[in-house]
Specification:
The chain is an all-alpha fold and about 350 residues long. Helix content is about 85%, strand content about 0%.
């Protein structure tokens, strides 16, 4: 097969894969979660094997322990978390009125005079835009729920994902060997090198950032509850767990904490400063202690490209794309770097006389 036809084949396979993910995005999350869980736990299974435990037994111990831990967390946290979320939703109208009142009270007089001269009433305008924002948020939330409700039901969380993770973790080494046997013989070395770099990037991010998220969720939840923030457990867990998605978690969770804190504590600056201090401590620990040690520079992408990936993949694949944006961007980055290295060593870059010489 010529190089041209090989390129056509792999581009066609890539297009078919992307089309498959796009078309079945509403039912794939439990399976992708099972794959990620198996990928995350494979080193643990390998370690248990080295200690003399058969692979099947090691897989059963790991999955059973994970399921029991998740059930324990659900039993201990979900009732309290559900109550706080319900209360926060019920308080949204009152919080909106507080926002309008504070904006009208603290808006500079020159702005009020300018708006009055233009025939614009500030409270009415704020209420109008506040209502539109609430409708937009409600519509967005409904879209998010309708697109993901089949993914977040009890069967997906407690049945499908653990079963998928069990089979994939048990067969992981055999699957990897099978995939390696399917590689084109001519490019086996190159593909293995690319796969190794992708594995390094993904394992560093998924395992490292997963640990960071769990730590931040505990830190924010405890800090907000100590500060007396309304729904502090819910907001803290949300802020920490959403840190898995760069920028998005800090923006959504931090803004939620600051808005609720400002409305609850104002004009008591000391209590509000406590909320700010908890957020600042979390960002400092994440940026200067945890992420450098646990994640490092495994992704190797500029923040601008990371933001572009988040927007692009979430636009195409919705919620699933938002969750997979960083791993997909990391994989794309590895492919681009290997492609660039091949280009810099090719006759297209050097000309015929310089073909075969690296940069």
């Amino acid at each position: 097969m010529t190089t041209h036809r090989q390129i056509q084949f792999w581009l066609g396979a890539l297009a078919a894969t992307l089309l498959f993910f796009w078309y079945f995005q509403d039912v794939l999350l439990p399976f992708i979660a099972g794959f990620v869980l198996a990928y995350f736990l494979d080193p643990v299974a390998d370690r248990l094997e080295r200690l003399g435990l058969p692979r099947l037994a090691a897989t059963a111990v790991i999955i059973l322990s994970a399921v029991l831990a998740i059930i324990a967390v659900f039993v201990a946290v979900v009732p309290v978390l559900g109550g706080q979320v319900a209360k926060l939703v019920a308080d949204v109208p009152a919080l909106s009125q507080q926002v309008l009142a504070m904006a009208n009270q603290y808006a500079p007089q020159w702005l009020k005079d300018m708006l009055n001269q233009g025939g614009i009433d500030l409270p009415t305008t704020l209420a109008d835009y506040g209502g539109k924002a609430a409708l937009w948020l409600a519509s967005w939330g409904a879209t998010l729920w309708s697109g993901s409700k089949t993914l977040l039901n009890g069967a997906s969380l407690l049945v499908i994902t653990p079963v998928v993770a069990f089979y994939m973790l048990n067969d992981w080494d055999r699957m990897m060997a099978q995939l390696d046997g399917w590689l084109p013989r001519e490019y086996q070395g190159s593909v293995r090198a690319i796969a190794q770099d992708v594995d390094t990037a993904l394992s560093g991010y998924i395992r490292g950032q997963g640990t960071v998220c769990l730590f931040l969720a505990a830190l924010y939840a405890i800090g907000f509850m100590v500060a007396g923030l309304k729904s502090g457990l819910a907001i803290g867990l949300l802020t920490g767990l959403l840190a898995f998605i760069p920028f998005f978690g800090a923006l959504v969770g931090g803004a939620s904490a600051l808005i609720v804190g400002a409305l609850q504590f104002w004009p008591n600056e000391s209590s509000l400063l406590w909320v700010v201090a908890v957020l600042a401590l979390g960002q400092f620990v994440e940026g200067y202690v945890l992420s450098p040690r646990l994640v490092g520079h495994s992704i190797g992408l500029h923040p601008v490209w990371m933001m572009l990936a988040l927007l692009a993949f979430s636009y195409v694949f919705g919620v699933l794309g938002l969750l997979l944006a960083v791993p997909l961007a990391a994989t794309t980055g590895v492919l681009v770097r290997h492609g660039l290295a091949r280009y810099l060593a090719s006759s297209i870059y050097h000309g015929r006389a310089g073909a075969g010489h690296g940069p």
